[in-house]
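I have a small job for you when you get a moment. Would you make up a two-line entry for one protein for me to read? No commentary is needed, just the two lines. Write everything out right here, beneath this request.
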Amino acid sequence: MRLRESAHAVLTDEGGAILDERTGRWTHLTPTASAALLLLLAGTTEDQAARRFAERYGITAEQAARDVRTVVGTLTAQGLAAAPVPARRWWRWGR
C-alpha cells in the first residue's frame, strides 16, 4: 500500500496523522492504525503486514488481518490511499 502523492503521514507507535494537501484536512490515527500503516508503508503486502502485526501485538492472525483491512479500507474510502501498482511481470510469452 502507498499513500497518494498529496497525502503526507506523520506516524509513531503512539499514533499519528495524515495531511491531505488537496483538502487541508488532517486524519488522526490511533496507535493501532498508525502501527498497521507503518507496516503497510514498509512495502509489505496486507498479508505480510497482518502477520507482523499479529506477532508484534500478540493477537490472532484473524484479528490482525481484520485490523489491517480496516486501515486500508478506511484510507481508501477517504481518498488517501493510492491505487495499487500492478506487479511487473518478469516473463514474456512467446519467447
